[in-house]
Amino acid sequence: MGKINWKLWSTIVLMVFSIWSLWPSFQWSRMSEDARAKAEREKSPILGKVVKLGLDLKGGTHLLLEVDSSKLDENVKIKDAVDRATEIIRNRVDQFGVAEPMIAKQGDKWIVIQLPGIKDPKSAKELIGKTALLEFRIVNKSKEATQVLDLLRDKGISPEEYRENPSAYPEITEVMPEGANVYASKEDAGYYVLDKAVLTGASLTNAKVEFGGQFGQPIVSIEFNKEGGRAFADITERNIERNLAIVLDDVVQSAPVIRSRIPDGKAIIEGNFNAEDARLLATVLRAGALPAPVNVIEERTVGPSLGDDSIRKGFGSAFAGVILVLIFMFVYYRLSGLIANFALVINLVILMAFMAYFQFTLTLPGVAGIALTLAMAVDANVLILERIREELMAGKTARVAVDAGYQKVFWTIFDANITTLIAAVFLFQFGTGTIKGFAVTLWIGLCISMFTAIAVTKLIYEFLFKENLLLKFKI
Fold first, then answer.
1. Are the C-beta atoms of residues 83 and 105 closer than 8 Å to each other?
2. What is the bridge-based pairing of β-strands 52-53 and 110-116?
3. Is 103 helix (H, G, I), strand (E, B) or coil?
């Protein structure tokens, strides 16, 4: 295989890859709004293959959270608390299924969160701010516990009311068993008197949604670490035929009877869950508890209309600019301008293919990065064509002029692009959010533009010369 054919087939393979990578995005663009919503609900595999859009293009939710330092433990520094809260929120958001969220610290105790595509900020805030506390408590069925439940029922007192101010109900406190307290139940709206916690969610290593039970309803299966597993085995061994209440945020989710010792550290939480409830519960349990409550001090929702408007204006401007440049190049440089335009289109296709394949997020700054990349690609082509023109005016043949033009201008293009690449690296290293998106787009775009401006256009000239399709030309 000759040198030209090797380059030609390499370019063809790259274009085939680009079309294959962009095909899901093309299909997505032709889907109706209902079909897209259904695909998002069902988490269709196509979601992982399309070009992702950022908050400024897709719309979504912007939240500014403040860590409540007054609720911090004395031994915990605010900086450590914010770091930990940021990581926990990041885990929760990742498991929530948000595509390319932006989560970053701001100031001493603020956390900025941007959730592209989230149309229900209420559920997002519930997930982010929830301080999940999972406990396992033995159900107290003593005579005193029965008296407590009777008094609560007769006086119409809820468990929350009693726990908040037990001194206001001395007749109940007098009979409350030592180390016990009263909790509501999610399943049947009944109350339980529970002994102190025998195990907490701190020992959890995993929580996931499964379907089981008599009617195949959603349940949450949990798994403890080694120490938690041993403790759980001991608890179940010592309390056979007693009820073990699974308490989440002071609400009894389930209180199954312990039939035998459970040695493998695995259990399930059953309740009146739908699939979404079970998924959120599993997510919260996996992510753990926040070091302190977080308060939402700013909330902005970028509506779909603003996102669509941004997309139309951004892409409309870029499209108009590209068309004008293509027309200018063709009119001013004729055939060579057409070759440069072809390389420019390849440049854009490959760039978008990489964006889709590596799941980078396209934002408005990213669109600016693409426009800058295309501008530098045009600039490189102009340098090459002007040098070739000088060689032709010096009386050299077409083939010699093309070779000399590329040789003399290569290092100029390389130096210009390498300095911009270095700037892009620093922007990515020290920037945040959309600045990083701009840097990524610029970096990839520059690499591709050097390839298309130098290699692809040269390949086209070599192919034309080899096939005797271009004996002489003017620029």
1. yes
2. unpaired
3. strand
pLDDT digits (tens, 9 = 90+) for 3-39: 556 777 878 888 899 999 999 988 888 888 778 777 7
**Which residues are CB-neighbours of 209 under 8 A, at least 6 positions away?**
218, 219, 220, 221, 275, 278, 279, 282
Query: What is the rounded average pLDDT of the residues 336-352?
Result: 89
Q: Report yes or no on whether pTM surpasses 0.85.
A: no
Dihedral angle sign, alpha carbons of residues 204, 205, 209, 215: negative
Helix segments in 261-303, DSSP class H: 275-287
pLDDT digits (tens, 9 = 90+) for 380-417: 899 999 999 998 888 888 888 888 989 888 888 888 88
SS3 for 137?
Answer: strand
pLDDT of residue 61: 82
- Distance (Å, rounded) from C-alpha 382 to C-alpha 354? 25
- pLDDT over threshold 80, residue 324: yes
Tokens of residue 331, six digits = 């009119």
Could you give the percent of the chain with pLDDT greater than 90?
4
Nearest Cα to Cα of residue 383 among 454, 435, 463: 454
Least Cα distance to 140 among 178, 168, 187 occurs for 178
H or E element: which one contains 124?
Answer: helix 121-129
Q: Return the residue matching tokens 């033009």.
A: 405
The H or E element that residue 434 is part of is: helix 434-450
DSSP H/E element including 34 = helix 33-41
265 — alpha (psi -120 to 50), left (phi > 0) or beta? left
Surface-to-core class of residue 468, CB atoms within 10 Å of its CB (0-12 exposed, 13-18 middle, 19+ buried): exposed
Contacts of 302 (CB under 8 A, 6+ apart): 55, 56, 59, 60, 61, 62
Instruction: Calculate the CA 154 to chain-centre distance.
Output: 51
**Most confident by average pLDDT, 85-99, 296-310, 369-383:** 369-383
Is the pLDDT at 116 greater than 80? The verdict is no
| β-pair type (60-67, 110-116) | antiparallel
d(CA 334, CA 95): 54
Length of the chain: 475
Pairing mode of beta strands 251-254, 181-185: parallel
Mean pLDDT computed over 109-135: 74
